[in-house]
Amino acid sequence: MQYHLVDELKRICGEKNVYDSPEDKIAYSYDGTPLYYKEPLAIVFPQDADQISRIMKFANESEFAVVPRGAGTGLSGGSVPVDNSIVMVMTKWNKILEIDQSNLTAWVEPGVITGNFQREVEKIGLFYPPDPGSLNVCTIGGNVAENAGGLRGLKYGVTKNYVMGYEMVLPTGDVLKFGGKNYKDVAGYNLRDIAIGSEGTLGIFTKILLRLIPLPQRSITMKAHFNSLLDSGRSVAEIIASHIVPSMIEFLDNTTINCIEDYTKIGLPRNAAAMLILEVDGRGDIVDFEANKILEILKTNNGQGIQHTSNADEANILKTARRSAFSALARRAPTVILEDATVPRSELPVMIEKVQEAARKFDLMIGNFGHAGDGNLHPTCLIDERNQSELDRAMKAFDFIFEEAIKLGGTITGEHGTGLAKKQFFEKSAEIPALDLMRKIKSSVDPNNVLNPGKIFSRSPKCESYKF
Amino acid sequence: MCLTTCPTYDLTKFERSSPRGRIQLIRAVADGRLGITPAFVDEMNFCLDCQACETACPAGVKYGRMVESARVLIEKTKTRHTISDRIKKIGLNFILTSRIRLRIAGFLLWFVQASGIQKALIKTGLLDLFGKNLTEYLKLLPQMKFRNTEGMLKGINLKPRNPSYKVAFLSGCIMDIAFSDVNYDTVKFLLKNNCEVFIPRGQVCCGSLHAHNGEMDTAVKLMKKNIDIFSSEGYDFLVSNSAGCGAFMKEYGHLMEDDAEYKERAGVFSEKVKDFSEFALLLDYSQKMKSPEGVVTYHDACHLVHSQKISSQPREMLSRIPGMKLVNLHESTWCCGSAGIYNVTRYEDSMKFLEKKMGNIRETKADLIITANPGCMLQIQYGLQKDGSQAKVEHPATLMNRLMREE
Ligand SMILES: Cc1cc2nc3c(=O)[nH]c(=O)nc-3n(C[C@H](O)[C@H](O)[C@H](O)COP(=O)(O)OP(=O)(O)OC[C@H]3O[C@@H](n4cnc5c(N)ncnc54)[C@H](O)[C@@H]3O)c2cc1C
To answer: Are A197 and A57 in a shared domain?
Structure first.
């Protein structure tokens, strides 16, 4: 069977574009998610949409699964192979096809690296804001499939706010175009948005049309630390309530501050309960006005060591702490589980307390940082996966954190997606009718369940009545 | 985060040719899920060892060490050795371990080159019979020098009366026979800046070539010998002008961690190692310098920027030269493909990396390319020659000494 599979794939894509050596199988058995690992039957690098379409038809006939893959930086196991699957790698589709300066749009292939695209459009004064921490590696296709967020989410939104359309191969092999350059378009259902964030389960993007905006002219970056979490929480709430929309409000907790200081030695206050790093951007005097207002709020809420700058190099120094957060934590332990529980931003202070409670209750080291402006936290658990008891406690802690997030009206994942890693939490926490509808959508688009099956949710409900 | 900084991944876009892919392969071998297959060996050798991935890794994974241990394992399990394996072994274990043998080898090579035998051989096309790349390899070989470092420094007083620093110096193995002029420039520059230079006799190769090629036992012997010989006298710093040696000597402390006898001294030894540019910043030279001609650019040697994390220092050192016109080299931290003997063992791949480098160099329109590793110097020189370019490559020490007036 497998022999036949590889031969047929080679017939479709060419000898040089199909791999099934043990080495290659190992090298495509994982993504950026710890603890998930499975070898595929083969790896293909399709050359055009027609080949993808033929592979999908073949998959439907021969009943193997296809797992689309971008750069494999995903943090929920989206591109990790499943049973009886081949991996379809899109990284060689890395051309920017068109930048339309009259409509402020760009057609790109899905394998274009996000950071490269940003640099390209910035050269001509345009701006593509979504900036996941992995932007120098991850692909636009992966971003659209995960609806990736980033530091600028608060003011500029996330990937979905910039996707105007795409060409996609459906699981059955049909090739369809969705959306287009129209700013307004209400003909029929808005099918376009259904595949954004679908984690490669509804189709394979082959071309993506992105929206661009003018590049902000200047920015001011600010920093303050606080002796109490309450003060930092209040500052964020007051900034939002004063109708200022910063392009960034990043939060670091005491554990994270200490890990960063151990690692970078840049003189961070080790006793501080929290630190905020903020940025406003835009045109002319408005930027100064907004910055002044924010500085005032930081001061009245007992902000310490307040700094601000409009110089790019100095701003970089202020942002070093936030940029090093993940690295600093990652160096602390062999296994780092980074989650992205998200709550309505008014609930953020409560959620931060809950994460601390989880760390105490389950006796774990959990650093917490994240995008305070949009309520998206990254509780990061530092463990050693070989220590089974620690691993179990970590799982319980995340159970607890997710449960609390849901109680606060939040969600188990703000930007990393459900994939395999959060599937069990998702199936527990989602509304049953909603989950049902999702399953129906999936089975009508992919009747034989061949495209990235078993991601986000299982096709057949396991125990629907169970719910907390 | 390593993927986009990896030259081999950049070239192939294959996950197994990425740092993270190689780590998974190494793990699979360690767990017994994968044997030491030809493809595994090939992948380990395809890696340039540039360590750009270590610079990029948020979690600080010591990738270089993993690949090195994989290579040790490959060496250990080899049952059959090819001719080039044997030549490599003789080179590493017989020639490079002894000063005298090394100097004899250097002299023989010098004779072949200087007498015109090499040129004549290339001209006849006779060498092409041995495979079309042999001619190219010979062009990549460094020009041997008639005199080694000791010979060049003969008669020069290495002990000024009131030195500001006492600096130890490793004349190296390849550096000593093929780049004794760079060694000479380094020492002269130090002397002009009122440093005492301590070049202990009996010192040996730093051992890095051995360690990188899976010959750890020999490397350890060499390390111990150097530690013994250098610690016979006190000194402030050991200045290194070869990025590879410097990087490796900074590792002695770590590598000897489990050796009760040498652990402490190895630590002290490593702490005192400074790259030429790191040390130069302690000196006050700018007043006494001429301005360089033309436009200068700087290429980061992997073993400086990635292994030693030294990138601002050489630039700072150069920009303190009055009238210096230093232009930025795009992707200056990308490996030029020289990578030890990679350009000989994997000539074709190496040329692809060189082509990328040369493209960026052309863009700078620089007249002079400064880089601090002999391997990079040869490789870029070779690239310039192929391009028919008039630009020159120079070691920072040579430039610094050339521009500095005698007291
Ligand atoms: C250090 C680090 C920092 C990160 N920071 C952030 C962050 O700030 N914000 C954030 O949102 N995420 C972040 N991530 C997560 C990850 O980078 C994003 O989810 C990213 O969008 C994944 O892109 P990728 O190209 O690596 O896709 P992959 O991981 O390869 O795939 C992700 C999903 O997309 C699907 N897919 C890929 N290409 C296609 C295609 N052409 N058509 C259809 N489906 C496709 C795959 O099947 C999979 O389900 C981070 C990850 C790391 C390692």
So the answer is: no
